[in-house]
UniProtKB/TrEMBL annotation:
Residues 25-64 form the LRRNT domain. Residues 1-20 form the signal peptide. Residues 154-200, 439-470 are annotated as: Disordered. It comes from Batillaria attramentaria. The keyword Glycoprotein applies. This is LRRNT domain-containing protein. PROSITE patterns: LRR (PS51450). Transmembrane segments: none annotated. Residues 172-184 have a biased composition (Polar residues). Keywords: Glycoprotein, Leucine-rich repeat, Repeat, Signal. The keyword Repeat applies.
């Protein structure tokens, strides 16, 4: 039966398609089809298959291998050694806590590796120095949402990767509604909440609930002092372009990052708690052009913190409400040394704050950002601008400004808009995508009573709507 099926596929798709499928059958726990990205190879999907180990019988012609939502705890040596044509490897949403030094042997052509949502704590004990050495062609690496991961549990959660909207990297968090939703409440396979049989772990000043065994528990023995960016391991990835990491408090990127001369996209969006940024934080990542520090619990930015990122083009600082708009001026001073063209500062102000009148103190050094063309500052409770600020404190080449979902009112600052000679686009629509919740939930019965009363009452004469109509 299988042979007849293979002949049928060959007839339909042509004699040169999917030859590897004919040579080696698809593993019984997986599905195999033609890779839509690399048409000469196979896409093998073994996701959500309750696997404990990487299948040994993956077809050698596989170019995309999806292994997410399984129960791997360790990647053994030579787990993928026969897959020399592999381009994309997805191991996200597992329990991986340890990778043996030769785990990725044979993957010289791999372009994308996704290890999100595992238990790979950022440390040199977890990332052995030569673990990534075989990945000579790797361009994109996802390691975020590991350091304080929800993977510290005995049973896999009912929620799968398809349910976690926050892990969809194609949808920036800064485009969501404010306030952002509360953390997901994970439930184990038996329906019990993770917290019901948990222990407490404190990592880098953050408390999380855990319930662990085996390799996962070994990783929890790491102290705060062990947490660091594994620059020794990453230094072998000479062709890496895009890196997604968790953010560690008051920790600089080590000298190994200097070897990553092609690294232009760096995102710390995930489990991120940066604290303070200074002129050593990004000293060894001078080639970064796109930097995402949204939701990173930044408290302070020194005046020269960004001055070493001379090639920087795009920066996202959204949701850093402890930093706020008041302290952004210090960051602007360092950014004046860069080539920043796009700045995103959504929701820098807590939702309960009073409205803000933007003044020259908020915008100190902002006018020195000579390359800046686009600013997005939505959800910041901005009501107005001081007189003259728009004429004296804005960058000279600013073209697009997005102030959606603020609280702007008509005031004298409107007259200063004539000073913005380079401006091409200004978005100031207000409350269509924004909702300020009440101080307390209204009583449903009270709402019904008031609504009924208002419907019957006619203002001015005390009569009813029916009487007025008559």
């Amino acid at each position: 039966m299988k042979t007849s099926l293979y002949h049928l596929i060959l007839t339909l798709l042509g004699p040169h398609c999917c030859l590897s499928l004919l040579v080696q059958p698809c593993p019984k726990t997986c599905t195999c089809d033609q890779d839509p990205t690399y048409s000469s190879g196979l896409r093998v999907n073994c996701s959500n298959a309750d696997l404990l180990e990487v299948p040994w019988d993956i077809p050698v012609g596989t170019t995309t291998l999806l292994l997410r939502d399984n129960h791997f705890e360790i990647l053994h040596n030579s787990s993928f050694a026969s897959l020399t044509q592999l381009r994309t490897l997805d191991l996200s949403f597992n329990r991986i806590a340890h990778m043996e030094e030769n785990a990725f042997e044979g993957l010289e052509t791999l372009l994308l590796l996704d290890l999100r949502r595992n238990v790979l704590t950022l440390s040199r004990k977890t990332y052995l120095e030569r673990v990534f050495q075989p990945l000579a062609s790797l361009k994109t690496l996802f390691l975020n949402r590991n350091s304080y991961a929800s993977a510290y549990r005995r049973e896999p959660p009912v929620l799968t990767s398809q349910s976690h909207g926050e892990d969809d990297e194609s949808v920036p968090r800064s485009t969501g509604n404010v306030p952002k939703s509360s953390p997901l409440s994970l439930k184990a396979a038996d329906g019990k909440s993770v917290e019901s049989e948990s222990e407490t772990l404190r990592l880098n000043g953050t408390e999380i609930n855990t319930s662990v065994t085996g390799h996962v528990k070994d990783k929890l023995e790491l102290s705060n002092a062990d947490l660091t960016y594994p620059d020794d391991a990453l230094s072998h990835l000479h062709n890496l372009v895009e890196l997604h990491l968790d953010g560690l408090k008051d920790t600089a990127f080590g000298p190994g990052f200097l070897n990553l001369s092609n690294l232009t996209v760096l995102s710390l969006q995930g489990f991120c708690h940066l604290g303070a940024l200074d002129n050593t934080t990004f000293l060894n990542t001078p080639h970064v052009q796109q930097l995402n520090l949204s939701e990173c619990d930044i408290i302070e930015v020194t005046r020269d913190a960004f001055s070493t990122l001379t090639d920087l083009r795009e920066l996202d600082l959204s949701y850093n409400q402890k930093l706020g708009l008041d302290r952004l001026g210090d960051a602007f001073e360092g950014l004046s040394k860069t080539r920043l063209e796009r700045l995103v500062i959504d929701a820098m102000v807590p939702i309960r704050n009073l409205g803000i009148i933007v003044n020259s103190t908020h915008l100190r050094h902002f006018k020195d950002l000579n390359h800046l063309k686009v600013v997005q500052a939505r959800f910041n409770r901005i009501e107005a601008f001081d007189d003259g600020v728009l004429c004296t404190e804005l960058p000279p080449n600013l073209k697009h400004v997005y102030l959606n979902a603020n609280m702007l009112v008509l005031a004298s600052y409107v007259n200063d808009l004539k000073c913005l000679e380079s401006l091409e686009l200004l978005h100031i629509n207000g409350f269509d995508t924004y909702w300020t919740p009440p101080l307390r939930p209204p009583d449903p019965e009270d709402v019904r009573t008031r609504t009924k009363s208002c419907a019957k009452q006619v203002p001015g004469n005390g009569g009813t709507a029916e009487e007025a109509a008559a």
